Amino acid sequence: MKQLLVIILVFLTLQLAAQKPIATTESFTIEGSVKEAKTFSLMDIADLLVKEKDSIVITNHLLERKSTIKNIKGVLLKDVLSKIVIDQDNPRLLSEYFIVCMAADNYKVVFSWNEIFNNETGKQVLIITEHDSKKGGAMNDRIALLTLNDEATGRRYVKGLQKIIIERVK
Asked: In degrees rounded to 5, what are phi and psi of residue 81?
């Protein structure tokens, strides 16, 4: 019995140690194949058009429910990206570009330029400015990015957004 208790305690300790706190961010930088890198805070994007969503269930890659986010407000990633200039004079070549959104813990998700600017998905990728009755700096996952129309919503839920890198396929 004593050995079982020790095993259970060790297992619980390992489980708690494996759950790292979310590294929050106060700003994110857009860099890469851009004319000029630019850093944005939540205040810098506050004047952009806000999109709202009542709630969304966050699911993993197996579509298992992990959590629910309620009262979501945010701005479209494409509206933020429109504030920078890609270092490409030929608009036809923009189809060769991709966008990497990276969290402070190095988690990365990728979008194509066409997915953001030439597809319905572009109207669903939010940089979250408020959720669960928490604004900006009070959010425990700030700065966050979420794709509302993904089936496995957790796969492109970037918590602690730190950097957006725009690159061309080589």
From this structure: -65, -25
Tokens at residue 164, please? 């957006």
Q: How confident is the model at residue 136 (pLDDT cuts 50, 70, 90)?
A: confident
Contact 145/122 with Cβ under 8 angstroms? no
How far apart, in whole angstroms, are the C-alpha atoms of residue 104 and residue 120?
A: 28
The rounded distance, in Å, linking the Cα atoms of 74 and 48 is 9
Model pTM score: 0.85
Tokens of 118: 């030439």
- 150 contact partners, CB below 8 Å, separation of at least 6: 156
Q: What is the pLDDT of residues 20-41, one digit of tens each?
A: 677 888 999 999 999 999 999 9
